[in-house]
Amino acid sequence: KVGLLLHSEEKDESDAIKRLANYTISTLNHTTTSLELIEQYHDSTYLSLMTGVCNLLKQNVVAITSASDSTLTAIQVNLAGQFHVPLISAVATNPFLAETFGQNFELRLSPSDVYQTGWVIVTKTK
């Protein structure tokens, strides 16, 4: 089981992420892998966010994928990491996430702001 944490108030973004996750799961399931996607929605409150992570953990997911910003990702990775469940972060870019939690269970899909800023500076000076 793989958890997918979605924001209930950002329907377009959540729908796009859900389609991508379902495609990935169906592609992987054509091999010897058998994965089940468990969706959990949260609203803008921290309580709802933490409840969403806890509900996924109760369902024994092996990883959680999230498209939350860096602030919400910090909360999610802190909670999921206590149970040794990796959080796959699609958009969090704050470079202090890794430093804050040291050896955490966060996997980033987008590069840190430190690298993105460097790319912009190099591109503008050329």
Please tell me about this protein's structure.
There is one protein chain. The protein is an alpha/beta fold and 126 residues long. 49% of the residues lie in helices and 17% in strands. The protein contains five helices and five strands. It has helices at residues 11-28, 46-58, 70-81, 96-101, 113-125, and strands spanning 2-7, 37-42, 63-66, 87-89, 106-108. Strand 3, helix 3 and strand 4 (87-89) form a beta-alpha-beta unit. The protein is globular. The chain starts with a strand and ends with a helix. The model has no long low-confidence stretch (mean pLDDT 78).
What's the quick description here?
With 126 residues, this protein is α/β, with parallel strands linked by helices.
Provide the β-strand percentage band: 15-25%
Number of helices: 5
| N to C succession of SSEs | EHEHEHEHEH
**Extended strand count:** 5
Distance between the termini: 47 Å
What's the alpha carbon Rg, rounded to whole Å?
15 Å
Structural class: alpha/beta
Shape verdict = globular
What kind of oligomer do you see?
single chain
Percent helix, as a range, is 40-55%
Output mean pLDDT: 78
Numbering strands along the chain, what is their spatial order in the largest sheet?
Answer: 2-1-3-4-5
Spans of at least 5 consecutive residues whose pLDDT stays below 50 are none
Helix and strand layout, with pairings?
Elements: E1 2-7, H1 11-28, E2 37-42, H2 46-58, E3 63-66, H3 70-81, E4 87-89, H4 96-101, E5 106-108, H5 113-125
Parallel strand pairs: 1-2, 1-3, 3-4, 4-5
Helix pairs in contact: 2-3
